[in-house]
Amino acid sequence: MEQIGQQTLSALNALLGAAKLRKGDILVVGCSTSEIIGEHIGKNGSIEAANAVLGALLEGLANTGVYLAVQCCEHLNRALVVENECARAYCLEPVCAVPHEKAGGSLATAAMMKFQSPVLVEHIAGHAGMDIGDTLIGMQLRPVAVPLRFEGVDRIGRAHVVFAKTRPKYIGGPRAKYDVASCEYAHE
Question: Which domains are seen in the chain, by residue range?
Answer without folding.
Answer: 2-185 (3.40.50.10360)
